[in-house]
Amino acid sequence: MEAKIILLPGDGIGPEVVGEARKVLTAVAHRHNHTFHFTEKMMGGCAIDAVGDPLPEETLGACLESDAVLLGAVGGPKWSDPTAKVRPEQGLLKLRKSLGVFANIRPVKVFPALANASPLRPERVQAVDIVFVRELTGGIYFGQPQGRETVAEGRSGHDTMRYNEEEIRRVLQIGVELARGRRGKVTSVDKANVLASSRVWREVAHEVAAENPDVEFEDVLVDAMAMYLVNRPGDFDVVVTGNMFGDILSDEASMISGSLGMLPSAALGAGGPGLYEPIHGSAPDIAGQGIANPLATILSAAMLLRSSLGLEVEARVVETAVSRILAAGHRTADLARSDERSIGTQAMGDLVVAVLG
Ligand code: IPM
Ligand code: MG
Q1: Could you tell me if 6 and 66 are in contact, meaning their C-beta atoms sit under 8 angstroms apart?
Q2: Which residue in 147, 236, 312, 347 is deepest, having the highest Cβ count within 10 Å?
Q3: Over the chain, what is the mean pLDDT?
């Protein structure tokens, strides 16, 4: 097949990890007779520096016309002044919104070889296989009004958390469909004991549950969920939640897998190009050193092959390669215990390419 893939390396370690994922995709294309046309575009802090806009029109246009978009990371201390007018993250939010990718799929799985890298006890993490479905284009990230003002008491800021039933229903529906192909259980996470938007969320969730009686359903409050992810993470199958809760819980859950550097994500919507990104950020503290873990981005590329290009076999080939490399004991610095040797970003990418079936 032929596919147009836009690469958005972004900031910090973004270019390093996207470079390795590109290598892997190129090798897959070569071995399986596909033609992937890669185009790199600017986005994030680097785009602010170059043209004053974190998501230049040209970048957005190219993404809208592509089959899939692979993003590294955006942001860093250089652009994080709280009073700055433009921020790299605005570009990412605008891109998600413009692509209409309302469902962010974040699988959390423990590679057997990494059970020891988890801060949780190995027997607790072995059974973990969770898919988070994070609502991505609504909630407090996008609610209006939002802003800051000076009031009698001094500086003040406000955000709005708003969800309408259509936004809630469609993301829960995705969770239900995913659960059907897995262990058949959906956990909906909200804060319905305090927030009005969560009470609407819960009402709609119960309607969706009633319409899909073949799927087991439960609600959990977000604070309790934070606890359960640590003391009984093996009990969850598909977890559906709003934008901010999903952001926070998925970082927490990534620790179960041993490192934030392992978790991929896919943002999907109503059939347009999907957006694939590792869930880790730009890690400015290690950028440019060649030590970042490229596996989350490589696994995101596998999700791209599967969900945007329909290449299930090729996706599995990449995932199996990652598993084998880890089983053989290779570790980037984030995964290595103090007594283990670690390898760099490029060496890890080369190893994955070398064992592709
Ligand atoms: C993520 C990130 C982003 C988010 C930031 C960079 C805007 O934390 O994808 O989880 O909050 O969505
Ligand atoms: Mg996050």
Answers
A1: yes
A2: 236
A3: 96
State the Cα–Cα distance between residues 85 and 81, nearest whole angstrom: 9
Is residue 191 among the annotated active site residues? yes
HEC secondary structure over 21-56: HHHHHHHHHHHHCCEEEEEECCCCHHHHHHHCCCCC
Q: Does residue 237 sit in the same domain as residue 292?
A: no
> Which parts of the chain have pLDDT scores under 70?
none
| Dist. CA 281 → ligand 2 center (Å) | 7
Residue ID of nearest Cα to ligand 1 atom 6:
89
Cα separation of 297 and 264, whole Å? 6
pLDDT at 10: 98
CA–CA separation, 281 vs 258, rounded Å?
16
- Write out pLDDT tens, residues 261-276: 999 999 999 789 999 9
223 a catalytic residue: yes
Please check whether residue 111 lies inside any domain of the structure: no
Q: Are residues 92 and 154 in the same domain?
A: no
* Residue 247 near ligand 1, beta carbon < 6 Å: yes
Residue located nearest, by CA, to atom 4 of ligand 1? 247
Domain residues for the domain of 226 are 119-254
pLDDT at position 232: 95
Among this protein's residues, is 141 annotated catalytic? yes
CA atoms of 192 and 171, how far apart (whole Å)? 17
Q: Is 157 helix (H, G, I), strand (E, B) or coil?
A: strand
Q: Tell whether 108 is covered by a domain.
A: no
235, 254, 273 - which closes a domain: 254
Is 276 a residue of the active site? no
Is residue 286 located within the same domain as residue 227? no
Residues 223 and 160 in one domain: yes
Give, using CA atoms, the residue closest to atom 7 of ligand 1. Answer: 89
**Same domain? 54 vs 161:** no
Our count of domains for the chain comes to 2
Q: Ligand 1: distance of its center to the CA of 25 in Å? A: 24
Is 42 a member of any domain? yes
Residue 248 and residue 264 in one domain: no
Nearest-atom number in ligand 1 for the CA of 277 is 9
pTM to 2 decimal places: 0.95
Among 89, 137, 265, the mutation site with the greatest number of ligand 1 atoms within 8 A of its Cβ is 89
Q: Is 109 a catalytic residue?
A: no
Catalytic residue among 67, 247, 276, 334: 247
Place of tokens 């990449």: 318
